[in-house]
Specification:
By secondary structure, the chain is an alpha/beta fold. Among the domains are: 73 residues, Arc Repressor Mutant, subunit A, CATH 1.10.10.650; 138 residues, Tex N-terminal region-like; 122 residues, YqgF/RNase H-like domain (Nucleotidyltransferase, domain 5, 2-Layer Sandwich), CATH 3.30.420; 118 residues, Nucleic acid-binding proteins (OB fold (Dihydrolipoamide Acetyltransferase, E2P)), CATH 2.40.50.140. The chain is built from 30 helices and 15 strands. α8 crosses α11. It starts with a helix and ends with a helix. GO terms for molecular function: mRNA binding; structural constituent of ribosome.
Length: 754
């Protein structure tokens, strides 16, 4: 598709980049290139735009093209009605938003039978025109001319009422009036929520909104979504309107001229227009626009959290014993080899009596010794701390790391088609334990098998626009997978699906080829995979790794199209490519300017040399073990003032949730995240970050824990992660920012500006 020049100019201005960059990116996107590929391997073409900028161009192009499609449809509709004038066409062509376009189209839009339609059928439009002109006329006498038994107009009052219906519709369909009303609703509108009679007990989770109001323009995402959910669950009554007198005054100011009997009729029509037509229409619009804004913010927060979780530090290829804890039903135990293959499974019962505990201890010790286990993963759900204490009492070799692992979503995976395909002969408990162990080894490779909405790092994810959410989360997963790179000979079909240029069908074909022909020996061998053509190879090859390949570049992020450049560099120095990779001294002798061509510039050459220094190295942070405070296992063990280690499990607009090992995440409100003022929690913390918190308050009955990170050096800036997330099912989605905390923050802010 040929990029539209007006679109390119608009996007360039909005994103503060050159039109050349936008045009080049748009062309690549239209040719089927992915965002990660363009960002990594087409820097010369785009002027080194990053993934965020490229995705921004893609999304804005989509919006503008949708707008143009709707514009064409409207033009055709009005043309078919034979009502298209040059002036109207110019108006439509100048409209820059969907709302403006629909406002212009409204008078020409086929509509159902309205009060104004009925009045026109009674022949009252000429009377409406006389009234709307607001000349000094005898209204009663004019109206009397339209009394007709045949047309069912009984008297002058009925004639005037019908005329006002027509005038009200004209006002409602006036594009300028709608734009003005829209602005009032957006800038002066107020959300008001009230509890529905008799729902006080049932709707306690929405208690903060039983008597609540705030400006629409300033309402944060999480509160908009909370109020809407309360309305959906029929606990709250919600309105979104400005002061009625102010809105009416604006409408009258636009249409009422003079001070005569006709003007009074127009004033009555304006009041009717607002109450019967505009108010409902504008409230619907502002609710939709505020919902869209809330969705975008919630999706952005979710996407940031997901990125941080997916890029958590991997333990790496080690033999792992994983435990999915339980009390009465026992702990499901599995042993996985360095590639995550299931070697052994059984159930142990460390919590159901002394005899069973001794037997469980003997089994674990035996398996650790037999399989030379290097790490032990414990799911962080029910019985996790008790199981951790049991394992720590076994006196296992110090070389065996014991790690608590976030099991959120493991049950979703264990019952999925993916899990059934991987382990057709195992039950859900075995599959869940395998997932826990593999998450420790490589969080990214395992988490891609689960719907991101089930991972537990979102907020109101079931309330936001599901299409927009999926689009955003797919972008994040693809970005993370390609940033890390994928080992083509061991990757699952699900992981390969997210590699640039592949998708489910080609991922399946790669796995089938691998099963039939053995491991890939070279990247070029990928071209033998069914339906994997030149375009798909171009997009995918740089992100696929082949460990121990004959050509060392096949294990790196250097794209095959650049192999000749590297080979020439080595030849010019009289060495091999392997020598270049091993020797920093040799790499420093390379004069990059000697290899610049019309298609390859310094950005790509710098990337190549940088990759030669660390071919295929995992960009994720090094794994660090973590332990909770011993003896603090339940919420009843907490006391105000306690200082405890914790792991950030979820970040929201109002703060961060922290796992402190008591089966219930605590909340660090945004006002307690740092000693300095913080507006965006992602500025100071990230999912999986290790922190130290102070317990402020414990509400055991409501299962609420209030924490603070003030005074913690880790709060000064985002620190290293670890492989942890939140406790499974610890926090209900509807949990909101506590109003008392919000008010405390507000009071603090006011104090700062006194």
């Amino acid at each position: 598709m040929e990029p539209n020049l007006e679109h390119l100019l608009k996007i360039a201005k909005e994103l503060s980049i050159t039109i050349k960059q936008v045009e080049a990116t748009a062309t690549l996107l239209d040719e089927g290139a992915t965002v990660p590929f363009i960002s990594r391997y087409r820097k010369e073409v785009t002027g080194s735009l990053d993934e965020v900028q490229i995705a921004g161009i893609r999304d804005r192009l989509e919006q503008l093209r949708e707008l143009d499609k709707r514009r064409e449809s409207i033009l055709k509709s009005i043309k078919d009605q034979e009502k298209l004038t040059p002036e109207l066409e110019a108006q439509l062509m100048a409209a820059e938003t969907m709302a403006a376009l629909e406002d212009i189209y409204l008078p020409y839009k086929p509509k159902r039978r309205t009060k104004a339609t009925i009045a026109r059928e009674k022949g009252l439009e000429p009377l409406a025109e006389r009234i709307f002109a607001q000349e000094n006329i005898d209204i009663e006498a004019e109206a009397a001319n339209f009394i007709s038994e045949e047309k069912e107009v009984k008297d002058a009052n009925e004639a005037l009422a019908g005329a006002r219906d027509i005038v009200a519709e004209w006002m409602n369909e006036n594009a300028e009036a709608r734009a003005a009303m829209r602005k009032i609703f957006e800038k002066q509108g107020v959300f008001k929520s009230r509890v529905m009679i008799g729902k006080e007990e049932e709707g306690q989770k929405f208690k903060d909104y039983f008597e609540w109001e705030e400006p629409i323009e300033k309402a944060p995402s999480h509160r908009i979504l909370a109020m809407r959910r309360g309305e959906t669950e029929m606990v709250l009554m919600l309105t979104a309107q400005p002061d009625e007198d102010a809105a009416l005054a604006k409408l009258e100011d636009m249409f009422v001229q003079g001070n005569n009997a006709a003007s009074e009729q127009v004033k009555l029509a304006a009041k009717d227009c607002y109450k019967r037509l505009l108010k409902l229409s504008m409230e619907t619009e502002v609710r939709l626009s505020s919902k869209k804004r809330a969705d975008e913010e919630a999706i952005r927060v979710f996407a940031d959290n997901l990125r941080q979780l997916l890029l958590s530090s991997p333990l790496g290829q080690k033999t792992v014993l994983a435990l999915d804890p339980g009390f009465r039903t026992g702990c499901k135990l599995v042993v996985l080899d360095k590639q995550g293959k299931l070697l052994h499974n059984e159930t142990i019962y460390p919590h159901t009596g002394q005899g069973k505990a001794m037997e469980a201890a003997q089994n674990v010790k035996y398996l650790v010794d037999r399989f030379e286990v290097e790490a032990l993963a414990i799911g962080n759900g029910t019985a996790s701390r008790e199981t951790e204490a049991f394992v720590n009492g076994l006196n296992l070799p110090k070389t065996v790391q014991v790690v608590m692992v976030n099991e959120s979503g493991a049950s979703i995976y264990s019952a999925s088609d993916v899990a059934r395909e991987e382990f057709p002969d195992q039950d859900v408990t075995v599959r869940g334990a395998v997932s826990i162990g593999r998450r420790l080894m490589d969080p990214l490779a395992e988490l891609v098998k689960i719907d991101p909405k089930s991972i537990g790092v979102g907020q109101y994810q079931h309330d936001v626009d599901q299409s927009a959410l999926k689009h955003s989360l797919d972008d994040v997963v693809m970005s993370c997978v390609n940033a890390v790179g994928v080992e083509v000979n061991t990757a699952s079909k699900q992981l390969l699906t997210y590699v640039s240029g592949l998708g489910p069908a080609l991922a399946q074909n790669i796995v089938e080829y691998r099963n039939q022909n053995g491991p890939f020996k070279t990247r070029s061998e990928l071209k033998k995979v069914a339906r994997l053509g030149d375009k798909a190879f171009e997009q995918a090859a740089g992100f696929l790794r082949i460990r121990d390949a004959k050509n060392p570049l096949d294990a790196s992020a250097v794209h095959p199209e650049s192999y000749p450049i590297v080979e020439q560099m080595a030849k010019d120095l009289g060495v091999t490519v392997q020598d270049l990779i091993k020797s920093n001294e040799l790499r420093q002798k390379i004069n990059l300017k000697n290899y610049v061509t019309d298609t390859v510039g310094l950005p790509t050459l710098q990337d190549i040399v940088s990759e030669l220094a660390k071919p295929g190295r995992d960009p994720r942070e090094t794994f660090e073990a973590f332990s909770f405070t011993e003896g603090v296992n339940e919420i009843k063990d907490l006391r105000a003032g306690m200082k405890l280690p914790g792991i950030i499990t979820n970040i929201t607009a109002f703060g961060a949730f922290v796992d402190i090992g008591v089966h219930q995440d605590g909340l660090v409100h945004v006002s307690h995240l740092s000693d300095r003022f913080v507006s965006n929690p992602h500025e100071v913390v990230k999912v999986g970050q290790k922190v130290e918190v102070t317990v402020l308050e414990v509400d055991e009955a409501r299962k609420r824990i209030s924490l603070s990170m003030k005074g913690d050096p880790a709060a000064a800036k985002p620190a290293g992660g670890g492989n942890r997330g939140g406790n499974k099912g610890n926090r209900k989605e509807s949990e909101e920012e506590p109003m008392d905390d919000f008010q405390a923050k507000l009071a603090k802010l006011k104090g700062m500006f006194k």
